[in-house]
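pipeline: protein-struct stage 2 | run 1193 | Related to cellulose-binding GDSL lipase/acylhydrolase
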Amino acid sequence: MAAGLLAIITVLGFIAAPGALADPTCHFVTFGSSTTQTGFKSNLTWPSASNPLGNPSLPGWTTSGGLNWLGFDITEFNRSATFVDQVDDFEVNLAKKPTPWNSRNLLIGIWIANNDVGGSWNEPDLPEFYEQVSAKYFEQVQRLYNLGARQFVLLTCAPQETTPLMRTNGADLTKLAAAVELYNDVMARNLQVFKKTHRDPKGWLVHTANAYHEAMDHPEKYGAPDDICENLDSVSCLWWNNYHPGVAIHRLLGAGVAKVVGRPWFHT
């Protein structure tokens, strides 16, 4: 698993239609790299229904220049939700009873694949290496399962070959795309094995390339002049910097997660 694992924790209250009984509060715990971070610190204000990130306030400290995919899922697409900083912190802070979650109302989200592939795609023996990486990945999923988690949504490695960084630094984009595909194939296969060898988990796989390609195929639709420009304002280009997507792609990612997982956590 990539070093420097970053993640956040947040809790959202329920959302209900006017006059309707509300669903019980659900919780969304996520683990990820820089495309998932919000800058949460466990020694500062913790989340609540009225303050969904706890600290810092929305949109948090993201690499999108605004809301990232999590921000969109807990605001625009949310029906209720929780986020956490690493499996160890989860075990210490939330796994022990009494806690606000159980196996039915907890969703685990994981998106760490970009760093795994971005830093390794040009190395030798990728099939063996990605098998080792994925084994470590699912060791952490197993830990979460042992703590009571039963519902998992995994995001695939994004198409690294589409980033301005890779497109302008002379990278072999065909080889890079093949590495992304290989990594994602290993992840998908191991998710299926995990589901088959455990009694009661649910597992969803979100293909992140859909969001990237939708925006890049129609940049003007999303306020950008082309598919490669970058701007720290996060909205006038598709890219916040030469590696991290801006708000438009993150919103599409959030919508993709919401559509795949659905209720009771999200509406689409």
